[in-house]
Design brief:
Layout: H1 6-22, H2 32-45, H3 50-67, H4 72-91
Length: about 100
């Protein structure tokens, strides 16, 4: 599990807020620690480059849920759990 320091967590939360503002995303603040945890699982279970790909797909899943009127926090948790489980299963197939 990724546990950013207080300074890093604050900086990343600020960055996420700025990014949401820039992209005109309102009503949702991503769980930065959960996203970092998912990236870590993907990087270690699959390959390092899987981290950004996996978090990008997480973002698409949350965006689709928001467009459908679903709760983005629940969607983020559900999609993150599904992707982490997939990465763990896939990791067993690595040579």
């Amino acid at each position: 599990m990724t546990t950013p320091t207080d300074d890093t967590a604050a900086e990343l939360a600020g960055w996420a807020a700025l990014a949401c503002e820039e992209l005109e995303i309102s009503g949702f603040t991503p769980d930065v620690t959960a996203v970092l945890d998912l990236a870590g699982v993907a990087a270690h279970a699959v390959r390092r480059p899987a981290a950004p790909v996996t978090t990008y797909l997480l973002g698409i899943a949350v965006g689709r849920a928001m467009a459908a009127g679903d709760d983005p926090v629940e969607a983020e948790a559900r999609a993150s759990a599904a992707l982490a489980a997939l990465a763990e299963r896939h990791g067993g197939r690595r040579p």
